[in-house]
């Protein structure tokens, strides 16, 4: 046949039994055997109009429009093989064959469809010289050839047993062969599923272990819609068939709306007899009184009362185990909860590539570095949610990967149009989100809307500061959002716990907040909270490490709040933004800091403190740019604006002394004035910063002994107070070692400082440390390496 058939076809798989051992035994003769084998089998297929889709080694995969033609080809091939002498120990070449009829699709990459896998498993169950047929082939071929009924057999990867038949060829039937190579039959109604389980191997192993090793009787797989709970449950059910001789029973509940439907649905799935004379729970207990059985309940989240039904069944029937999928736990004592996380980046990439190749045959998005980068970016922007990745990759039937990336600015409009066999709620990302939101109680729903004010991951205290009022208990509402997988929890190595919405969910929450009557009030509360967080970090040299870390972690929040404030309340924007300027300089965003300072200073009638913070930002920008005059002027202006009892006056003096020392100008008088003011009005934290600038002035003056003493005292005070300036002690040690001529010690100190600065994203300090390393190398006579650094 020139054109490969498609639709409902008959599939023939063949291969030589024990071919690997035979090839080793025959050596050079094996090539001749393969040639003659291909001539016999291929000739029979061609003679009966079959299409050979592929040969691999000693195997054939052929497709026929007519089942009788396929069976005739298999019979003729076996007769041809038997009629030849072969140079094998037995003088025969034993080829096993399997036939099955089903619906397949033909794409550029070849045939696809579940029935192909079923036909291959039929062939794998056969023995050399044997032809096995499924029931459908037997019914379509009638009395073309005699067959022996082998009964029902469970094929690998197919939970439900299949009726198989053995062709009786020239009087040789099933009695001449061992039983088919199949799995022990288990009662089940699990649907077959040929979709690969991507990125969930560890989760599958955890479910299997819970039931087989740990003795659990109730496992609930939880997660937001679209995380792959149903797919995992199907795979787990198939994997657990052998350990549940009482059967594995699939009970889909997505269409139900009442927990009272759970037990009747189970009864229908397992064919439990119930005449109404006793409670249905007792009837099910009687049905499950034998060997251990597993009931898989899919989609319990929308069923009030489902937990009671499950608890009652588990209590009444000791032989029953339950695997449930739900967006939230059942909160039962015996329950083990397995919360599905988004896919790992590598698994996301694989899923994206598989769907892309399915919708646009021949497309390999991972074939080149640019395509790989696009795939990784898309998956990251979709928060590695399987449903979102599949919906996005489905759009590649129309768009290029680059066009798809551009359109993801509005993901809720783009991510829809899923396959028709999906549940309605999974045909678009917005439908899935709406389904999940519909499960929330009013308090959790209110918190979700208020989360639209946030930009990224935040701590519980941030949520409470912005969202807590008489109507919302944030702690309880957060637990509810975690239960249904809407909110994600992360704990870093420092013990800090943060919470965030996936980006698509955040967009929904932001839309709802914008439409809410009190939306502006919550946006304002968010901006006011960020202003309070940013204020102490606006004086980097005299804030604590914790205060600076909080400000750094909430940078995206600050930007979001600042954007809203500029559009709605310039005075609030200035109060929020002014302390951010110096921290932006530390993060390396010098031009942004200068522009923000200028914008704030251009506003009329700003409070003195707000104006002072903006001036400090300009001074810090000039300091980084080595412009001492332009740096000193703003710092001195702050001191004139605020009295010496104000912390910003003292901070401006700290910055002035630092600038003078760095520029090689006279700094001793300003340093003495600073120490006097700090001792009179300041804290130990300020005193630590003052000791660091005192160290710099002594170093610049060449008094190395006094500099070393000041540095040791600064380190002690910074350690004692948890000062952010402790981050800079190593670079100061490098400065001292460099001037003392200990070049290797200096370089090592700068490297230690740079490593820590890089880890926290402190680009200004990285830059300063690179300069220090270069100076150390140059002083040691290693000029080329210094220039490279």
What is this structure, in a nutshell?
The protein is α/β, with parallel strands linked by helices and 789 residues long. The protein is 54% helix and 12% strand. β2 and β3 form a beta hairpin.
Q: How is this structure best described in words?
A:
This protein is an alpha/beta fold and 789 residues long. 54% of the residues lie in helices and 12% in strands. Helix 34 (743-760) runs antiparallel to helix 35. The longest helix is centred in the last third of the chain and has 19 residues, at 519-537. The model has no long low-confidence stretch (mean pLDDT 90).
SSE-based structural type: alpha/beta
User: Which range does the strand content fall in?
Assistant: 5-15%
The rounded Rg comes to: 36 Å
Mean pLDDT: 90
User: For the terminal residues, how far apart are their CA atoms?
Assistant: 68 Å
Report the total helices: 36
* Overall spatial form: elongated
Spans of at least 5 consecutive residues whose pLDDT stays below 50 are: none
Number of strands: 16
Features:
single chain, eight-stranded mixed β-sheet, five-stranded parallel β-sheet, 12% strand, elongated
List the helices and strands and how they pair.
Elements: E1 7-16, H1 19-26, H2 30-47, E2 51-56, E3 59-64, H3 67-82, E4 95-107, E5 110-112, H4 114-125, E6 131-134, H5 135-141, E7 147-153, E8 162-167, H6 201-212, E9 218-222, H7 229-239, E10 248-252, H8 262-270, H9 280-287, E11 293-298, H10 306-316, E12 320-326, E13 335-339, H11 345-359, H12 369-381, H13 386-394, H14 401-407, H15 411-414, H16 429-437, H17 442-450, E14 458-459, H18 460-467, H19 474-483, E15 487-491, E16 497-501, H20 503-515, H21 519-537, H22 545-553, H23 555-568, H24 570-577, H25 580-586, H26 590-601, H27 608-624, H28 628-641, H29 647-663, H30 668-681, H31 684-701, H32 704-721, H33 729-739, H34 743-760, H35 763-779, H36 783-788
Parallel strand pairs: 4-6, 9-12, 9-13, 10-11, 11-12
Antiparallel strand pairs: 1-3, 1-4, 2-3, 4-5, 6-8, 7-8, 14-16, 15-16
Helix pairs in contact: 2-3, 6-7, 8-9, 9-10, 11-12, 11-13, 12-14, 17-19, 18-21, 20-21, 21-22, 21-23, 21-24, 23-24, 25-26, 25-27, 26-27, 27-28, 27-29, 28-29, 29-30, 29-31, 30-31, 31-32, 31-33, 32-33, 33-34, 33-35, 34-35
């Amino acid at each position: 046949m020139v054109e490969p058939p498609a639709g409902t076809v008959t599939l023939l798989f063949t291969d030589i039994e024990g071919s690997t051992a035979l090839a080793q035994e025959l050596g050079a003769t094996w090539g001749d055997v393969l040639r003659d084998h291909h001539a016999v089998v291929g000739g029979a297929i061609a003679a009966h109009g079959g299409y050979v889709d592929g040969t691999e080694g000693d195997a054939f995969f052929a497709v026929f429009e007519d089942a009788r033609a396929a069976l005739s080809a298999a019979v003729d091939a076996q007769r041809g093989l038997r009629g030849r002498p072969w140079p094998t120990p037995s003088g025969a070449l034993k080829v096993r064959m399997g036939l099955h009829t089903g619906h397949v699709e033909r794409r550029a990459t070849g045939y696809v469809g579940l029935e192909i896998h079923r036909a291959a498993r039929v062939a794998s169950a056969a023995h050399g010289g044997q032809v096995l047929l499924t029931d459908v082939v037997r019914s379509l071929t009638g009395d073309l050839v005699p067959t022996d009924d082998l009964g029902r057999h469970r094929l690998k990867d197919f939970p439900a047993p299949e009726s198989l038949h053995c062709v009786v060829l020239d009087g040789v039937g099933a009695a001449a062969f061992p039983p088919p190579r199949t799995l022990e039959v288990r009662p089940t109604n699990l649907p077959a599923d040929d979709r690969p389980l991507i990125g969930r191997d560890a989760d599958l192993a955890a479910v299997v272990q819970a039931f087989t090793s740990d003795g659990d009787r109730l496992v609930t797989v939880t997660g937001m819609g679209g995380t792959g709970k149903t797919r995992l449950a199907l795979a787990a059910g198939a994997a657990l068939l052998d350990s549940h001789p009482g059967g594995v029973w699939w009970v889909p509940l997505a269409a139900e709306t009442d927990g009272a439907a759970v037990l009747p649905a189970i009864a229908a799935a397992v064919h439990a007899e119930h005449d109404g004379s006793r409670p249905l729970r007792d009837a099910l207990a009687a049905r499950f009184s034998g060997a251990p059985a597993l009931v898989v309940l899919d989609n319990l989240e929308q069923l009030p009362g489902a937990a009671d039904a499950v608890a009652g069944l588990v209590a009444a029937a000791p032989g029953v185990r339950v695997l449930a999928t739900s967006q939230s736990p059942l909160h039962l004592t015996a329950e083990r909860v397995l919360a599905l996380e988004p896919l790992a980046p590598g698994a996301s990439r694989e899923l994206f590539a598989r769907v892309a190749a399915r919708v646009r045959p021949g497309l390999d998005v991972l074939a080149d570095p640019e395509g790989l980068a696009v795939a990784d970016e898309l998956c990251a922007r979709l928060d590695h949610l399987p449903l979102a990745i599949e919906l996005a990759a489905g759009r590649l039937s129309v768009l290029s990967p680059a066009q798809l990336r551009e359109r993801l600015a509005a993901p809720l409009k783009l991510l829809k149009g899923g396959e028709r066999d999906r549940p309605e709620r999974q045909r678009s990302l917005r439908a899935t989100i709406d389904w999940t939101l519909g499960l929330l109680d009013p308090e959790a729903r209110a918190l979700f809307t208020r989360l639209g004010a946030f930009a990224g991951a935040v701590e519980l205290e941030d949520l409470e500061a912005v969202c807590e009022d008489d109507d919302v208990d944030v702690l309880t509402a957060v637990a509810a959002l975690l239960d249904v997988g809407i909110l994600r929890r992360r704990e870093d190595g420092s013990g800090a716990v943060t919470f965030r919405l996936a980006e698509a969910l955040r967009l929904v929450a932001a839309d709802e907040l914008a439409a809410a009557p009190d939306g502006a009030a919550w946006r304002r509360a968010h901006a006011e909270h960020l202003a309070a967080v940013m204020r102490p970090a606006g004086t980097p040299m005299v804030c604590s490490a914790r205060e600076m870390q909080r400000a750094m972690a909430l940078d995206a929040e600050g930007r979001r709040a600042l954007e809203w404030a500029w559009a709605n309340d310039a005075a609030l924007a200035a109060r929020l933004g002014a302390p951010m300027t110096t921290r932006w300089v530390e993060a390396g965003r010098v031009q942004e800091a200068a522009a923000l300072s200028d914008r704030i200073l251009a506003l009329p009638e700003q409070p003195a403190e707000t104006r002072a913070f903006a001036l400090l930002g300009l001074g810090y920008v000039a300091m980084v740019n080595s412009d001492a005059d332009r740096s000193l002027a703003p710092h001195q202006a702050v001191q004139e604006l605020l009295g010496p009892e104000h912390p910003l006056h003292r901070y401006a003096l700290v910055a002035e002394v630092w600038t003078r020392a760095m520029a090689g100008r006279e700094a001793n008088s300003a340093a003495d004035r600073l120490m006097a003011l700090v001792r009179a009005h300041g804290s130990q934290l300020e005193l630590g910063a003052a000791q660091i600038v005192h160290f710099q002035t002594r170093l610049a003056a060449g008094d190395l002994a006094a500099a070393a003493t000041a540095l040791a005292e600064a380190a002690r005070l910074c350690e004692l107070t948890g000062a952010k300036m402790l981050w800079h002690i190593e670079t100061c040690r490098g400065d001292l070692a460099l001037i003392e001529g200990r070049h290797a010690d200096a370089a090592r100190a700068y490297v230690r400082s740079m490593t820590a600065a890089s880890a926290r994203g402190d680009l200004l300090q990285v830059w300063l440390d690179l300069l220090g390393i270069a100076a150390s190398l140059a002083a040691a006579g290693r000029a080329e390496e210094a220039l490279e650094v």
